Structures are given as structure tokens and as C-alpha cells.
Amino acid sequence: MAKARVPKRPYHHGKLREALLEEAERILNKRGVDGLALREIARRVGVSHAAAYHHFEDRDGLVCALAARGFERLASDLAAGARRADGPAGFDEMGVAYVAFAARRPGMFRLMFGPEAAAGRADPEIRANVDAAFSILLEGARTIVATPGDDRAVRCVALRAWSLVHGLASLLLDDQLSHHGLALRDHERIAREVLAARRLLL
Amino acid sequence: MAKARVPKRPYHHGKLREALLEEAERILNKRGVDGLALREIARRVGVSHAAAYHHFEDRDGLVCALAARGFERLASDLAAGARRADGPAGFDEMGVAYVAFAARRPGMFRLMFGPEAAAGRADPEIRANVDAAFSILLEGARTIVATPGDDRAVRCVALRAWSLVHGLASLLLDDQLSHHGLALRDHERIAREVLAARRLLL
Fold this sequence. Notes:
The structure is a homodimer.
Chain A: H1 13-31, H2 38-45, H3 49-55, H4 59-83, H5 87-104, H6 106-112, H7 115-119, H8 124-142, H9 151-173, H10 187-196
């Protein structure tokens, strides 16, 4: 069992919430969503579980807060990806960033798109962060569509691109590609090759 | 609780295995892989659990047999999709068939690509059926790649296409698209639009 880290001085209110979320994410990426328990997280951060319950009403509250945090990070990673190159190449880099997010934060990725967080989609913080991530995707899609003024076409291309990287990330995480010689640790090279494969088409 | 169906006469050996798998798949698509229990399946088919254990050593054996059956069906659905049109259009229809498979057999789809079946991938029956499905995908990819003799290019295009439809199927099943006005029941139209969106690109 991991030793509790006892903080030298009491946490400032906002800092404790952050510390609890960070510890929760660590557990999440190691053991998956089923491994999350507010009591253990509190113990590892070195506070009473009453203090933890002060920040998250219950496990569902913690899951929602984690999902909101995950979508915020995803949006920021996608934006950083897009800045790595101009135009269509920037959109490809956004895709590479999506797969990298899943590879580096597997538990978080599964939680964000899993049934528990889907049930909490009405939560305004999750909603806002999901919308922000989707806006970045739409902006990117506008750079690769032949008719950027056609919103319907842009949305369709965005959904296509999202499906592609979501599927690749899922197949890699779920160990469906290792017998094709494709390992999760090579996610960046694989994502770049798969995204560039559009140039191989008729 | 569902009533057990009592068969009028004893099952022929092969027929009982088939009946158990059919009942298991029914439960799987309704309640997911966690809902599978060999005892309940035996009861519903109207045989003793000893008779069921004669066909499947344990729950893992049942999961493997289900996954093998799933990949066999998937291969047959993909081949049927490809036959609906020639060339690139046929490859798109294969994609529509993949998403339709997931939409119609959600529990089976999750089982096939989930951790339990991945652990059983060494099973020769699963292996053979996965390879058969992948061969159909490769054959299709060869019809849309600019250099059909280039095996590396064909594999890359196949992985790209698989990722795309796997991602779309997952997003639909995991209820990630309903707030974009896209419902699982419209999977055929959505898949066709997303696949055709390649013509919207620059």
C-alpha cells in the first residue's frame, strides 16, 4: 500500500482540490476508472476523507471533475498540435496530438469517453470544455475542406477526422494492433503515417 | 427473471453448442459482457449447467467462442458490403457494414475488441477469423490505393480505413454524438456521409 504523503501545512482550499484531482488522475491512468476511490485519494494526499468530500460530493462528482479536466487538457493539446504546422499539416498534427493524449493518459481517455462521464455530460463544466475542444477541431477542419464557408461540410469533415484518430487511439489502447507489429509506444510515428496515408489514395 | 425454454427433445451435440452461443449473444447485446453467466445461459436454453460446461470449459472459453463467432460474422458482413458496389464505392460500403455490425451487435462488438477477448487472441479459432476479416479489409484497401502493388501502402490505407470506421462506431455506441444531433439508429446514413466526406477535402 502506498504511504500517505503528509503535507507540512494545511492546503489552501483551491490547492487541495487540485492536489486531489492530480492524485486521482495518477490512479486513473494506472488502474482505470474502477480503481478510483475518494477515501484512498484523500489518504494519499494526506487529508481526511471529510476534507476530500468537501470538494467532491461523491464519486460521481470526482468523475465529472476529472472528465472536465481531461477535456480542458485535450483542447489545449489539440491547439498546441495545430500550432506545430500551417494548414492541412497543422490539422494532421492535431490528430497526432489526439492519439498522443490517449496514449499518455489512457485511463483519462477511457473515462472521458466512457459511460460514467457520458452520464455527466449535462454538467456545465464538462459541456463547456467539450465544446471548446470541438471548436478547435472545427477550426482545423475548416483548413482542409474545399469549401470552408460550408458549415455542413466542415462538420462532416471534422467528424470524419475525429472518428479516424479516435479509432486509431482506441485500437492502440485496446491492444488490437500489436500482432501487426504496431506498439502503443510508437503512437506518434503510427499516427503520422496513418494520417499521411490520405496521399496514398486513388 | 426470464423463463427457461424447455426443449421438446434433447439437443444434438453441435446444435446445443450453437443454441448456447445464440442465447449468450442475446444476453451480451442486451446487458454487455459482464452480464454473461454460463449457468443462466444453460437455464435459458433448458439444459443443465453440466451440459453447458461440456461445451465451454469456463466463462473464458465462452468469451473466446463468442469472439470467434463475432469475427466470423464481421468478415461475412464486410464481404457482403463489398459486393454491394464496385471499386472505391464497394470499399465505402464495407465501412458502412462495419458500423452497422457494431450498431446491431453492440455487446458483441465491445466483447470482440475488449480486454477479455484480446487476452484470448492466441486462440487459433479467433486468430483465423480475425485474419480472415483483415484479409477482406486488405483486399478492399487495394481497390482504393494508387499503387495496389505496394503492400506497405495497402496496409497503411487499410489501417486508416479501419481506424475511421472503428472510431465512428465507438463514438456512436458510446453516445458521444447525440448532442450533435447524430443518433445511433441513423448509423447507416451517418457512416455513408462520413465516408463520402473524403470528396469534400481540399
